[in-house]
Design goal:
CATH architecture: Up-down Bundle
Number of strands: 0
Order of helices and strands: HHH
Oligomer: single chain
Distance between the termini: 21 Å
CATH superfamily: Metal-sensitive repressor, helix protomer
Length: 85
């Protein structure tokens, strides 16, 4: 299953934001910020990455259901989905 870059634009934007958030977390640690703030920001990065992954899997599922890509089977999508759990 190949991804259409046009369909993935929101995912790409989310990943870029997560990249910036992760850089901020690194800076926070280097600056000696408090644990609660660091963990809160790290959790936000984690959620952003999870959402991006789920969006990619959802796109694959949608394509499969529409038969745009009949080579993608249910087992493959399930494996992808579970890899994010």
């Amino acid at each position: 299953m190949e991804l259409d870059p046009t369909d993935m634009k929101p995912v790409i934007n989310r990943l870029r934001r997560a990249q910036g958030q992760l850089a901020a977390v690194t800076r926070m640690i280097e600056e000696g910020r408090d644990c609660k703030s660091v963990v809160t920001q790290l959790a936000a990065v984690s959620r952003a990455l999870d959402k991006a992954g789920f969006a990619i899997v959802a796109t694959g599922l949608q394509r499969c259901l529409k038969q745009e890509d009949p080579s993608v089977d249910q087992a493959e999508l399930e494996k992808l989905f579970l890899s994010l759990a």
